[in-house]
Amino acid sequence: MLSDPEPYESSIADLKILDEEILPINEAFQKVFGSDKELKLNSIKLAIGSNYNDYVTIGENDLVKFDVKPTLTGLLDFIKGNKESILGFLDCEYISEEGNVIYLNCGKKNLSENIYSISVMILASMQQRGFFLQQEHKYYGLQLYIIIESRKPNDNLLFELLKELNIDWEVIFFRRKLAIHDWTEIECENNSENLKSFLRAKFDTLNYFDVNNIIRLIVKNQLPFKVANKMASLLYKMKSERSIRFHERKFQENPYEDDQVQQDEYSITLKKAEVAAAAKLACAYLGIQKKIKFDRDISVNEILKYEAEINNL
What we know:
Elements: E1 12-13, H1 16-33, E2 40-43, E3 45-51, E4 54-59, H2 61-64, H3 72-81, E5 86-90, E6 93-95, E7 100-109, E8 115-125, H4 129-135, E9 142-150, H5 156-164, H6 169-190, H7 192-202, H8 208-221, H9 225-253, H10 272-285, H11 300-311
Antiparallel strand pairs: 1-5, 2-7, 3-4, 3-5, 6-7, 7-8, 8-9
Helix pairs in contact: 1-5, 6-7, 7-8, 8-9, 8-10, 9-10, 10-11
């Protein structure tokens, strides 16, 4: 039969990869999720024979056609008992849209309330073939991927799995958070509209006028992003504390009144003196020694009064 040739040559990967890389992952998976949870084997092709010129291949489909559901644990146990006759594992699937040659694909869905799925894959990227040929003098560079789909990034089972795999989640989280913060800082310092949008998104009790007054003061004094962020944080806390005290006071005055007057902290605009007080304190907290320029109609005594209030929060 004639058919279009695949854009890659067939190759055999060493079994050591499965022993050294996949076995620890499977053990960690079962330790965290339980021995009754198995990673389903989706794709694999083993070379069985005496040498590289005399072998046959078998794959997961040879079990599936008999209605047997192959698992990663079963594969590893089979390899352990038949190492002498197994030469390695071959490319078994080509995804043309991604340019990936798949050597192993396994996974499990609906592991917990938060973790949708976990997939483990060994593949070679055709797009990176030139890189490996140049750097490693090899046609292929196999890459291991662990793909986790989770509802939230701080799930306890997810942390346990990463810990078992000796992956420092705290370092990953810190690097990511720091990088996002640094990039955000640059964008906000380059464009005050970005700063305005950032403050309104992060501090929901600060209304349009609050944020505008903060931006005006920041631009007027050429203060950095971190001062604006600290100012907004102080003012956000002040508005929230005031709202709590107001509702507590109203409840003490009349605890049985059903239709109490509600005070929405978002709708009440901060005074310019309060914004100025937050600016002075933010600079002091951050060690920035700079004389802040205020509007002439702002009373120094008012600024001192609000500084004291913020300090007592």
